[in-house]
Amino acid sequence: MTTYLACVGTRPEIIKMAPIYRTLKSRGQNIQVLHTGQHEDVAQALYTFFDMEPDYQIQLKRRLPSLSDLTAELLQGIDQVLIEVKPDVVLVQGDTASAFVGAMASYYRDVRVAHIEAGLRTGQHDPFPEEKNRELIGRLANWHFPPTSQAAQNLRREGIPMQQIYEVGNTVIDAALWVKSLLDRDGASHILTPELNSFLHHHEGSHMMLVTAHRRENWGRPIQQIAASVAILLRLHPDLTVVWPLHPNPNVRADIQSVFSTLDNESRQRLYLTDPLEYPALISLLACCHFCLTDSGGIQEEASAFHCPVLITRDSTERQELVDAGGAILVGTNPHRIVEMASALLTDPLTYRAMQVHESPFGDGYSALRIADVLSYSAGTPQVESMS
């Protein structure tokens, strides 16, 4: 039997690895989970929700707030787990430090690497350091699972052999649709805080905009500009409500809250600032919001599963497919541009309908099955289930 080790440590990695974990587990495969500790504050709730409790955990000390210190700690911690588990295949996801170091440590131990969500590129310096992380993983992995044809083309352009590239869609769509099915069955009110439930009920019938901002390149003045744009929109559109889960970084929070400190009382009552939301709550909001304003790659993908227009507060995106499909627009952090496009979505039904993509360019909900099929065949385990 093939032994798989899923090396994950951030919120997006856990979400996107969960469908693969569930699929391999259902096939009787030996898949173990290493939690690297990179997002310790939100990880445990996700592991519990997905019934994916870690078999190994790294206790990061983070003596210095530097990428080199994080990389060194991760390398030592992951290497120790590799020595103990002796996996046949290490699964890494995306472009985080956990994914890059997991791939590098596996290469040092001559362990094969499967890269989930491979091939995403902006071709620019940003996002930093994620752009370089995913490029480097591309030089280390044995299986590359790009979510789209564009991502697959990026890999081929970089010289990755075609026989190592498998276009499968993105497992984030699998996860989002699975959670939505649970919400449809059980209802969503119990997963939101009483305060957020009350806010949404009080403003029922208004247009809700979901806002998130966390990219390092947007910290400081850019995020202040995003907040200023939201303040202007609240003043201009009395039928607009805004829910904004804040990044836990205290400096980021302070920048946002300083902008809203001068907001008039009527507008302020239609703004809900909250701590980071648990994943089911976020999916619930995505499924019912009017549109999103975000710099998050994951939310770009998840929103597309629910036909939700996206305004991207970045100058480039590694998920260009949604822009090309008409479901997203790059607005950067210029307040004039943000206000212009958000106002169009709030006032022009034709513009709004044109941005409601009917099929997500990122997947159909069966990506994990495709990945499991490939690995079951080529990692040495008999294939026991097909996609049909």
* Separate helix tally: 17
- Beta-strand percent range: 5-15%
- If you compute it from the alpha carbons, what radius of gyration comes out, rounded to the nearest whole angstrom? 21 Å
Structural class: alpha/beta
How would a crystallographer describe the biggest sheet?
A: 6 strands, parallel
What distance separates the N and C termini?
A: 24 Å
In spatial order, strands of the major sheet run 3-2-1-4-5-6
What is the tally of beta strands? Answer: 12
Instruction: Tell me the series of helices and strands, N- to C-terminal.
Output: EHEHEHEHEHEHHHEHEHHEHEHEHEHHH
- Helix fraction, binned, reads 40-55%
Mean pLDDT across the residues is 93
Q: What characteristic shape results from the CA principal axes? A: globular
Regions with pLDDT < 50 over 5+ consecutive residues? 381-388
Describe this structure in words.
The protein is α/β, with parallel strands linked by helices. Helices cover 48% and strands 14% of the residues. The chain has a six-stranded parallel beta sheet with strand order 3-2-1-4-5-6, with helices on both faces. Strand 1, helix 1 and strand 2 (30-35) form a beta-alpha-beta unit. The radius of gyration is 21 Å and the shape is globular. The relative contact order is 0.12.
